[in-house]
Amino acid sequence: MDSEDELEGDTEIQLGESDDVVYSEELLPTYKSIPEGASLRKVAKVDFNGRPDSLFFNDGKRRIDFVLVYEDESKEHEKGRTIQRKKRRRQYFEASLMKMGVELEATPSVVDEKLFYIKVHMPWDVLCTYAEVLHIKLPIQPNDLASDSSPFNCVTKYFSPSEDVIAKETEFFTAPFARDRIDCFYVKDKEQFFTPAMRSRMAYYILCRAPYEVKGQIKKFGINKLLDGGVYKAAYPLHDCRFNVKSEEASCPNERFLLYNEWAHPKCFYKMQPLDLIRKYYGEKIGVYFAWLGFYTLMLAVAAFVGLCCFIYGYQTRESSTWSKEVCDPMIGGQIIMCPQCDQKCPYWRLNSTCETSKELCIFDNYGTLVFAVFMAIWVTLFLEFWKRYQAELEYEWDTVEFLEQEEQPRPEYEAKCVYERINPVTRTKEKVPFTTCGKCLRVSCGIGTVLFWVLLIIASMVAVIVYRLAVFLAFSKKMPSGLQDLEPLKEYVTPQMATSVSASVISFVIIMILNYFYERVAIWITDFELPRTKTEYENSLTLKMFLFQFVNYYSSCFYIAFFKGKVVGYPGKPVYLLGRYRNEECDPGGCLIELTTQLTVIMGGKAIWNNIQEVLLPWLKNVIFRHCTQVHSEKIIPRWEQDYQLQPLGKLGLFYEYLEMVIQFGFVTLFVASFPLAPLLALVNNLFEIRVDAWKITTQFRRIVPEKAQDIGAWQPILQGVAILAVATNAAIIAFTSDMIPRLVYYWSFSVAPYAENSTHTMEGYINSTLSVFNITDFTNATRPDDNYHWVNLTTCRYRDFRNPPGHPKQYEYTIYYWHVIAAKLAFIIVVEHIVYLTKFVLSYVIPDVPYAVKEQIKRERYLTQVILHEANLKLVTKHLKPMTDQILQQTENVDVEDTL
């Protein structure tokens, strides 16, 4: 039938079951192209029956599995081809759904006369069909293996939700559903056999594949395209009740109410999460996320405790540090005149002006930091290994062990583009694909090129921030008091390094947020262009792109401060310039570690505050504004489907951003923890709020999420492993090259006493003097000579941070032997620490099995039972088919025997 021809001939109309249903003629499909063989029915249009918590059609029998919302175009003042096209596509789509066996019922809005709600019901036969298509696992018999009781049960029971409130679910052995073997499954009640989450998942599967337009060989289908085109305004499964009021409906399980009171409410911050109920209500994908977040937070408690002890140790010893005392001593640090740190405009300054900074540095740069860095390298290995074990338990309990191999179907967007044929290398049969090998290479190359462009853009922005740091440092240095004749330290004076570091950190954070906003859209566009086959492949591809960008975006400034700043600066008479104009930044005489700590604090704190604003305030404000604009002030006067429409949609990638936020935080906790032992504590506090904020958000402010299956955390697992491996190298390099720990150890063991002195004891006295080289001010060039010489009449030399020979030495201003000792010690430290830690990580990974023994036994038992049940079922089918033939053969044999006897 031509798409432009009007529908002709008789139309079969099947009325609903209820006599009091009013039918709307405008909802009769009068579209111009209908699905071949469709049995057309009027969609029942009913009024609200006064039961706001009802989860059923108007007849009170058929459960609502999904809701579609659209705006009636006949209420619009303007007419046009766009409106007619939307109406035609919607009618064709609904007819396609009915052809696939789905039942629909339309209800007008009680708030907005323009809105209509299409309620979707999945009959039993349709559920059985698509349960088999999706390989959904369903119970076959109760689990007869005794579960091992944990020795920690006596403790955890005080932090777990009460079983009187959230009953413990019965454990079953499960098998993929097969319609012809339904007698083998544990079916007590047809209405309860498929959970609401399963029903919604199957309904969404159908909605994503029902066509809405066919033109020649081109078929357009999927609810997502209709939502993007404005044909429907929303599509969502229903919450089962209000979150803060228990439903009075007898058939309502009130799971949302239980989740809010036992999980999402702030009073439950100390309780363990009801993961089984979360999985049952929201699906495995949401359940795995909250299981991972809870496990990560629990492991952070151990790291936070050790990090806090390290911080307290540094705080208690900051006043007793010998080298800090020398900096603050008026007779030592007060007598040392430092060279200007920029050309011409910067003044000379006394070392004791950095007294407070040196004390703050002692808090983070001490021997406890080394111990904590090694501990964190072991901690991250234990975290990943124990998570694998816990994840294996969840995979078995939630029936996702073989999910990726059996259940995941191609994305509708992928199926719509399949126009080429190829031979499947496994089945050796023809299959359709969306592009050739060359086309796939072209798309992937385009994606890689775009990602590299944005990475280079981040690097360019980082260079811009570095130039800003150099320019602002010069401006702050001009205002630095010159002619400091007093010998007392300036305790209230803010050094140019600190002022520059704080302002640059804030600017870096703002640039990070701006680039994130644009790159998110670019990454989604690239991934859509690559056209991955399944949703898991889509999310993994997007994950790698986003994390690569975020890694460079968030960590580039930290890597610059840790490993580049102050490393190539030359010396006062011959400085090194960036871009031929700006003199490279120097570290504070105490080192760059305190600046790295400042950078981490600003980015971690700012990111946590910004994310909480986005996650809490924005959805809440949107819902308040929506209710105000629609003049709805009470949920009691409107039905459940309309209450849910007033909530916010989570979005296609809502969970993706939650993972990304936590993985970026994981990077800060592990990659730079040697410079900031309080990072795990800050992450722990943030995550305790994060769990409840995320729970509160999806339970109260968002529509119910379409349940999805998930086996694990996807591409985030190898990313975490990569970060854990990189963290060992970065922390070893921070201790070696950013902190002053190695130079102090070299001085303490090699240069602090005379080699042949009797009764010699090692001491740190004189360490500051040994780390500062001497420069003759007459060796300044005209371009570098400071302008404030008149303040220092008798000044002939100044000091700078380096290990170089003094003026008058045969190799003046060249590196001393002390410098080469320090370099050798740093390299040796990195090699030894890395090998020890990596060996320990390898041993732990080998010793700790990924799957617990008890889970392996349960998997074997389940597979055995499945094989037995399937074998018996197949045997019954074969016997049933062969019985007539066998009876006929036996009858013929008896007749032959009788004839022979006669």
Mind sketching the topology for me?
Elements: E1 22-23, E2 44-45, E3 66-71, H1 81-99, E4 103-108, E5 115-121, H2 124-133, E6 137-142, H3 153-156, E7 172-176, H4 190-193, H5 196-207, E8 211-215, E9 218-221, H6 223-228, E10 234-236, H7 255-264, H8 275-282, H9 284-317, H10 322-328, E11 337-338, E12 349-350, H11 355-364, H12 367-397, H13 403-406, H14 412-416, E13 420-423, E14 430-433, H15 437-478, H16 496-530, H17 535-563, E15 570-571, E16 574-575, E17 577-578, E18 582-583, H18 593-630, H19 640-645, H20 654-671, H21 679-701, H22 716-738, H23 741-751, H24 767-771, E19 772-776, E20 797-801, H25 817-847, H26 853-901
Helix pairs in contact: 7-21, 8-9, 9-11, 9-12, 9-21, 10-11, 12-22, 12-25, 15-16, 15-17, 16-17, 16-18, 17-18, 17-20, 17-22, 18-21, 20-22, 22-25
